[in-house]
Amino acid sequence: MRILFLGDIVGRPGRKGVALKVNALRKKHDLDLVVANGENASQGIGLSIKNAKDLLCCGIDIITSGNHIWKYQNLYPYLNSCDRIVRPANVAEGSPGRGWTVYRIHDDLPVAVLNFQGRTFMQPAECPFMAADKILNNLPEDVKVILVDFHAEATSEKQCLGRYLAGRVSVVIGTHTHVQTNDARILEGGTGYITDAGMCGPIDSCLGLTPNPVIKRFVTGLPQKWKVAGGPVELQGVLVEIDADSGRTTSIETWNSGQITGV
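User: That's the sequence. What structure does it adopt?
Assistant: Structure tokens below.
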């Protein structure tokens, strides 16, 4: 089976680029599943209920998220009712939504999608390693294909979770830092891995945002008003091939769309 995982979608430019390209990409790459991190899809931070529904109608099967998923409170009831959006599993018990879901491809092949948040340089959260153990111990026996989105800041923490889960999940994909890394590989036991899938958003930016306020924040240390950048957009992510019977990754490679203009 072939999966495209898209990195963090940033603001309106990222949403428009995804809406424009995803259905064509499904056909071009003969994709069985498209997963995207959507926690920055609304104004660069957070995910509104309208934007969530729009993304799920444009060819994305599952939306993963991270620490910004809580910005829009009107999304909370939808997180409870919609099994195609997952929030970090290792947040406080009783939080809205679910930390993992099982999605059936072609109505028969089950794929589990798990979401965790890192703890290094991030808001407080429970241990992602222990949270992963708990979920994996409770997955239905027929689920062989398991995809993990680890939304974390530190590359070391991402690499360690990848190694920790090697041989137990199909692929571990890092998100949050918006910069596509050059370390796509297959770990022992057939687990695909990349530290960060990148982002879907404006190229001429700082992580999808207009550069000047971000630069001023670094120079002055003072708060600034963020704004999503404009200009050409690029979609970034990873293409993963997984053996459906064993759940092992057979191929993983970085992917980008090239420049998309006029969005």
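The radius of gyration is 17 Å.
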